[in-house]
């Protein structure tokens, strides 16, 4: 049986004690401990970053010579570190790519998404919305990630989950699934981790 949902659970209290903005900070912390793909000085994009729990961990991981860009449809309380930049943006908006480029044009060493749709309670609808957000994150990881970069996206299991994993496999050398300890018991969410983005293939030679 899954762990019961308790809003003021262990991780909630631990986050408060440690001055973290959200319990979800422990999820990215665990992912980075298992797959330490972020080095000091790296540049990382955090999608769905409010209130900023992931951003706190990512800022520590890359340090002051790095760069962390966080976006969300909800405003994020500003960070004191100048290398953490945030903006209110909807990743599904038509002008998102242009707005992101204004903020920082890349390339990134990692693209991370903890985005979650507003749930409707209708499972298939929620899975489809979650997949749409994860696909947009993957598109950004492929177009703006350096060769060798990493990708992390949260996704609700079910629906086209397998197809999505194959799409990540097409762009990354290795693909892992992580269900962090801090994930609530009944939650269907899982993080798909893509390691070492493949270099874009060279165009096929033109026949003489
Ligand atoms: C689970 S919360 C993220 C928590 C965050 N990682 C943290 O550690 O503080 C999911 C976030 O996804 C954001 N989100 C949902 N749809 C979005 C969209 N279209 N564009 C940007 N952010 C979105 C929500 O506003 C919400 O803040």
UniProtKB/TrEMBL annotation:
Pfam families named in the record: FtsJ
Active-site residue list: 154
EC numbers for this chain: 2.1.1.166
Binding site for S-adenosyl-L-methionine: 52, 54, 72, 90, 114
One cellular component (GO) term of this entry: cytoplasm
Record GO terms (molecular function): rRNA (uridine-2'-O-)-methyltransferase activity
Residue span, Ribosomal RNA methyltransferase FtsJ domain: 21-197
InterPro entries documented for this protein: RNA_methyltr_RlmE (IPR050082), RNA_MeTrfase_FtsJ_dom (IPR002877), rRNA-MeTfrase_E (IPR015507), SAM-dependent_MTases_sf (IPR029063)
Localization (cell): Cytoplasm
Keywords: Cytoplasm, Methyltransferase, rRNA processing, S-adenosyl-L-methionine, Transferase
Coiled coil feature spans: none
Catalytic reactions on record: uridine(2552) in 23S rRNA + S-adenosyl-L-methionine = 2'-O-methyluridine(2552) in 23S rRNA + S-adenosyl-L-homocysteine + H(+)
Family named by the database record: Belongs to the class I-like SAM-binding methyltransferase superfamily. RNA methyltransferase RlmE family.
HAMAP family per record: RNA_methyltr_E
Function of the protein: Specifically methylates the uridine in position 2552 of 23S rRNA at the 2'-O position of the ribose in the fully assembled 50S ribosomal subunit.
Protein name: Ribosomal RNA large subunit methyltransferase E
Taxonomic placement: Bacteria, Pseudomonadati, Myxococcota, Myxococcia, Myxococcales
